[in-house]
Structures are given as structure tokens and as C-alpha cells.
Amino acid sequence: REAESFKEQGNAYYAKKDYNEAYNYYTKAIDTCPDNASYYGNRAATLMMLGRFREALGDAQQSVRLDDSFVRGHLREGKCHLSLGNAMAASRCFQRVLELDHKNTQAQQELKNASTVLEYEKIAEVDFEKRDFRKVVFCMDRALEFAPACHRFKILKAECLALLGRYPEAQSVA
Where does each TPR repeat begin and end (predicted)? Predict the structure, then answer.
């Protein structure tokens, strides 16, 4: 009951967009009752709102370890993977959501986003070999729209900007 009370307080702060306080209350709920998938799922959502995708990924993964049928946990795990630039792992998560709920439109859209990122990665790889660095920068910009926390994409973009002689931009991205 105490854990549920902490969760409710966390939900109230989340609704007010006070994600730091929401995080604190979800953590208290987890500390009180560490076997509840939704508490980890809620904390993952909060961490995602704070842009802390790596930590959010851990919580989302824990939520689905505790309950493999927790659809929102799989969705959040997939979104974290995608934000971090791991489109293949993201795709597996969204596929799992569709196994659990084949009409889930969010998973269907996110699956398309993941395949878009994979496509931009492939194009960038080919164009890098061809030394078409402008096109690689373009592809990385598009990929970063879906994967804003991906260091690999940012580094590749910075490298290509430097190779194009656009040093201030390269430095800013790096």
C-alpha cells in the first residue's frame, strides 16, 4: 500500500511535468516493492523525459524481466534503444509489442522509425566509402531525428563535417 502511495505521488508530479520529483517517488515505490513492473516502467518514462535514455533502458528492461507481457515496458525499451541509436534492438522490442498486441499503432509506427534509421545507416556507410561526406551528414541528421542520444551518429557527422572543412560545425557537434 505504501509503494502504491509513492507511485500515485509520482504520477501526480509526472502529470505536472516535474520529472525529478516523479523520479524520486517512483524510486521510493521501487525501494518499497522491487518486484512491480509498472514502477520500473513509470521510472523509465520519467528518465526518458529527462533525456537519460541509458538509465531509462535499464528500468524498461527490468520491467519486462518482471513481466514479459508488459506492453508499455517493451515500448519504452524499444524507444530507449532507438534514441540511443540501436535500431535493431529497438525493432525486436517493437516486434514483441506486436506479438502481444498486433493492433498497437504506436509499435507499428516505431517499427517504421527503426527501419528508417537502419536505412539511413546503410546509405551513410556506402556514401562514406564513396567519400560523399555531405550525404553522410544529411543521413546522420535524419537518423538523429529518431536517435537524438546516439553518440555514434554524432561522431560520424562531426567527422564528415571536419572532412568537408566545416570545422566550427564539426567542433560544435563533437
Answer: 3-36
